[in-house]
Amino acid sequence: MKLISWNVNGLRAVLKKNFLDYLQQESPDVLCLQETKCWPDQVEAVWSDRYETHWNWAEKKGYSGTAILTRERPIQVTRGIGIAEHDREGRVITVEFPGFFLVNVYVPNSQRELTRLAYRQQWDCDFLAYLCALDRVKPVVWCGDLNVAHTAIDLTNPKANVRNHGFTVEERAGFDAVVKAGFVDTFREFEKGGGHYTWWSPMGGARSRNVGWRIDYFLISSRLRPALKSASIDAKIPGSDHCPVAIQLEAAPLSTTAKKPASRVSR
Q1: Which candidate, 20, 197, 30, 177, places its Cα nearest to that of 104?
Q2: pTM of the model
Q3: Phi and psi at residue 188, in whole multiples of 5°?
Q4: Where does the pLDDT of residue 58 fall: very low under 50, low under 70, confident under 90, or very high at 90 and above?
Q5: Domain count, the chain
Q6: At a CB cut-off of 8 Å and minimum separation 6, what does 47 contact?
Q7: Deepest of 14, 92, 162, 206, by most Cβ within 10 A of its Cβ?
Q8: Angle, nearest 10°, between helix axes 117-135 and 169-180?
Q9: What is d(CA 125, CA 121) in angstroms, rounded to the nearest whole number?
């Protein structure tokens, strides 16, 4: 089972570039998109009808938003995490499959002057609680733009960015809590070295010089680790300031018949 995650920085924009060619070439079972910046009626679904498309959009047009394209019809689709303060920006969409939950997330940016850092810390706490509630039911695969470089090897210039958004002590502690809760950073299961990034500033030729940050991830419940076959970053794919990340799982890693948590809500 091939799953891909990509912050497209505007779906309408990337549709005018290489999106359809990329989708046809990679042919994933699931494609998770972040920062779609559109409502469904603003974009024509010109991709193959082999995919069902599930959307969560921000109340504000042209901002944030997530979507999931999936070949297999999910058991259930959930938008948001059930907390109104967090659910106005279309940042989370969850689909349930027989063997696992798949959560697609676009985590809030703390902003250049850290004006949203306190909110980001609350988000991290509430979102992790949501993930853990799902994980008590069946395993979780979650992915997206997490807007944080976890360790010093996840960005080119760590010392210069210690108090910059995306690499603050507080944001990195939020990621530490995720790992402590039992979620596995899939890419680091296969690659322990630095120099592998998923986002590059559009300024100063940063991408051509590979001056970047690894802020896009796939994480999985630890009990899914035996089903994980590969994890990769496809840095050569243009079209956005982010590149796609991907994992391969066994087709049906696990299943469960446990009761669903009461905290899950749909709209």
Answers
A1: 30
A2: 0.93
A3: -75, -10
A4: very high
A5: 1
A6: 20, 23, 53, 69
A7: 92
A8: 10
A9: 6
